[in-house]
Q: What sequence folds into this?
């Protein structure tokens, strides 16, 4: 069975602070895919990143960065110099290999950035 | 603009009535999905479809039904058999079915049954 745990339910920061969202996953698959999605107050989920299990290279996209560590089964997400527009619920998700059609989502972390 | 549309955004129904939620995509994606989101929880898969005229049950299919007669459309019917239908429903699509492909989501429909 696949499982995604986002231990932080809510995080509140002041604008310009950095914030790191933790994601720990469990899977028996050797090939799997990890995702992060953002859900702003409007409700629509926005795709942020996909990472496959063979690519442990960290990635940076603007103020966003991701740290994938297979040794600890973690795929953490950092927002640098947070802005009010970053306020949202962030979901980490996991899917198995090619024949796995299901995304297993974590419970989400609500990030509130205060001006 | 390419994307996924869901209508309506808010839907109210009386208990015992069936209700159909619309989902349309113009991304030319083969695969489509329906998820349910409850407060404070992640998304749970209701049904998915890999291709036209084919669909499979997800984790919580009881009380729901779907059809996939056209590539662009994947409507979800919430039947009176669904014990707790009030929730936020999200439709998604991906280029193809399979774990490697990211899913793109519509704006969602918030269903309230009283």
A:
């Amino acid at each position: 069975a696949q499982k995604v745990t986002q231990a932080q339910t809510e995080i509140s920061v002041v604008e310009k602070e950095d914030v790191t969202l933790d994601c720990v996953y469990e899977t028996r698959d050797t090939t799997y895919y990890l995702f992060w999605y953002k859900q702003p107050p409007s409700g629509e989920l926005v795709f942020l990143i996909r990472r496959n299990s063979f690519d442990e290279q960290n990635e940076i996209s603007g103020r966003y960065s991701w740290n994938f560590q297979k040794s600890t089964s973690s795929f953490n997400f950092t927002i640098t110099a947070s802005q009010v527009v970053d306020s949202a619920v962030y979901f980490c998700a996991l899917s198995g290999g090619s024949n796995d059609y299901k995304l297993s989502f974590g419970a989400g972390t609500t990030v509130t950035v205060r001006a | 603009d390419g994307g996924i549309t869901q209508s309506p955004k808010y839907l109210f129904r009386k208990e015992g009535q069936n209700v159909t939620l619309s989902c349309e995509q113009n991304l030319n994606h083969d695969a489509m999905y329906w998820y349910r989101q409850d407060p404070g929880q992640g998304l749970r898969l209701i049904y998915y479809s890999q291709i036209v005229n084919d669909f499979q049950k997800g984790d919580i299919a009881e009380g729901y039904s779907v059809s996939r007669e056209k590539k662009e459309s994947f409507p979800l019917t919430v039947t009176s058999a669904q014990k707790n239908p009030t929730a936020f429903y999200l439709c998604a699509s991906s280029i193809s079915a399979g774990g490697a492909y990211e899913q793109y989501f519509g704006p969602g429909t918030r269903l309230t049954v009283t």
Summary: Chain B has a mean pLDDT of 93. The interface with chain A takes residues 31, 33, 40-45, 48, 50, 56, 58-59, 88, 90, 92, 97-100, 102-108, 110 of chain B (CB under 8 Å).
